[in-house]
Amino acid sequence: MDRPVKFQNVEAGEKSNKKPRGNLPKQTTDILRAWLHEHLDHAYPNEEEKQQLIRQTGLTDKQVSNWFINARRRNVPRLLTQAEQEQEFKNRASSSGSPPDNRSPGRR
C-alpha cells in the first residue's frame, strides 16, 4: 500500500508581511449598510459619495471599494429578494380589497 505524500512547508519559519484580517467597527458598517439599503437599485457610489463615506467612516478608498465589492456579491441579491417579497405581500394585501385581519387567532 502506498503512503500519502507529505509536503513540507518551506515558508513555515518565515514571517508574513500581511496584516491580520479584522472586522470593521459596527458604527462603520452601519454607515455603509445604510447607504447600500438606500441605493439597492444601483449600489455603486459615485466619486463624491465615496469621498463622503470615506470621511464618515475613516476608511481608505480601497477599504470602501472592497466593502462595496463584497457587499454587492454577498448581500445585494438577498436584499433584493427580500424587497421583492415584501412588495408582493403589500400588493396582495392591497388587491384583496379588505384590510388584513390583525386580530389574534383565538378571537376569530
* Coarse morphology: elongated
Helix content bin: 40-55%
| Major β-sheet profile | none
User: What is the typical, i.e. mean, pLDDT?
Assistant: 80
The number of helical runs is: 4
**What is the radius of gyration computed over CA atoms, rounded to a whole number of angstroms?**
24 Å
Task: Kindly describe this structure.
- It contains four helices and no strands.
- Helices cover 54% and strands 0% of the residues.
- The protein is mostly helical.
Which SSEs are present, and which pair or pack?
Layout: H1 26-38, H2 47-57, H3 61-74, H4 76-95
How would you summarize this macromolecular structure in one to three sentences?
The chain is mainly α and 108 residues long.
Attribute tags:
0% strand; 108 residues; 4 helices; mainly alpha
